[in-house]
Design goal:
With 296 residues, the chain is an alpha+beta fold. The protein contains twelve helices and seven strands. The strands form three sheets. A three-stranded mixed beta sheet has the order 3-4-5, with helices on both faces. A two-stranded antiparallel sheet has the order 1-2. The protein has a two-stranded antiparallel sheet with strand order 6-7. Helix 2 (63-79) packs across helix 4 (103-112) and helix 7 packs across helix 8 (181-187). It is globular and about 60 Å long.
Length: 296
């Protein structure tokens, strides 16, 4: 197994080998898709292909990789005896292993799957395109995006959900939806995205520089203001001289004045009520949704 991230010097940022990382991602996706198809056929006694699903949700490091990934679903269907993918004649001599890094092959997959991609994948891209890669939350952000965009027509529809970790742990499962309108209403995704604070490129660059300078530091308090944090947001208050990270939670927009009385006389924070947090009820709703609707 190839490694995708290396960290030869612990005090510096990790290095990413993109070609290897992408190949590992696509290889894991192929394995999950074929095992899912085998399981589906064993359970239902019916052949499986992409037409059995209505939507596809992906872990989304960046959008081009998602496009290639969806194309591989169609390619795997072809390998399993399904309909051929348009334009594959020029690549018939490639082994499966060679297809992971062949740029011409991957480009053709994206082209051939473009129409289906628009219908099956784009509705799940709202949050990931607006916010970027959320890592462990990426596939769930895609699922929530799909519910936000399509909740009025999701009942009895099936979505394939591919989740991936850079340690090459991956899974593919399906969700068959019931009524999801209450989840869309609770999450209120579009309004929350529109409520974000805009800053200039100069301010954003300064924020990134501050983060870089604080990497591996201890016995310090972050300098970035917390006055605009949403209710219930956890934030790093300080890293002490023993390298322990101490967090607080914002109760209102002036949380700094309420919480930082003095380092030696910190008032313990009480748990924030569910009604005061936008995230707590959303998470609990999501967990109930997954328990109720996540089935074959």
């Amino acid at each position: 197994m190839s490694g995708t991230f290396t960290n030869p010097q612990w005090y510096r940022s990790i290095h990413v080998s993109m070609d290897i990382s992408n190949a590992c991602f696509l290889r894991a996706l192929d394995g999950c898709y074929n095992r899912y198809a085998d399981r589906y056929e064993a359970v239902f006694g019916d052949s499986f292909d992409l037409a059995k699903a209505d939507f596809a949700v992906f872990h989304a490091p960046y959008n081009k990789l998602v496009q290639k990934s969806f194309g591989r679903y169609m390619y795997n269907d072809q390998l399993r005896g399904g309909a051929p993918v348009a334009g594959m004649e020029d690549f018939k001599d490639l082994s499966v292993e060679e297809t992971y890094e062949n740029k011409g092959f991957l480009k053709q997959l994206v082209t051939a799957s473009k129409d289906k991609y628009s219908d099956m994948v784009q509705p799940s891209e709202l949050i990931t395109k607006q916010c970027g890669n959320s890592y462990c939350g990426s596939s769930h952000a895609g699922l929530l995006s799909l519910i936000t965009n399509k909740h009025k027509e999701l009942k009895d529809k099936r979505a394939l959900v591919f989740s991936y970790g850079s340690g090459l742990a991956a899974t593919l499962f399906s969700v068959k939806f019931g009524d999801t309108s209450h989840i869309a209403e609770t999450a209120n995704v579009i309004e929350r995205l529109n409520a974000r604070t805009k800053v200039s490129p100069e301010v954003f660059t300064k924020m990134l520089s501050d983060r870089e300078e604080s990497y591996t530091k201890f016995d310090y308090e972050p300098s970035q203001p917390i006055s605009e944090l949403q209710k219930g947001t956890y934030y790093l208050q300080k890293v002490d001289d023993k390298e322990r990270r101490i967090y607080s939670r914002a109760f209102h927009t002036q949380a700094g004045a309420a919480v930082r009385i003095a380092p030696q006389t910190m008032i313990p924070l009480k748990p924030i009520p569910n009604s005061c947090s936008k995230f707590t009820p959303l998470l609990s709703q999501s967990m109930r949704f997954m328990r109720r609707f996540a089935r074959f």
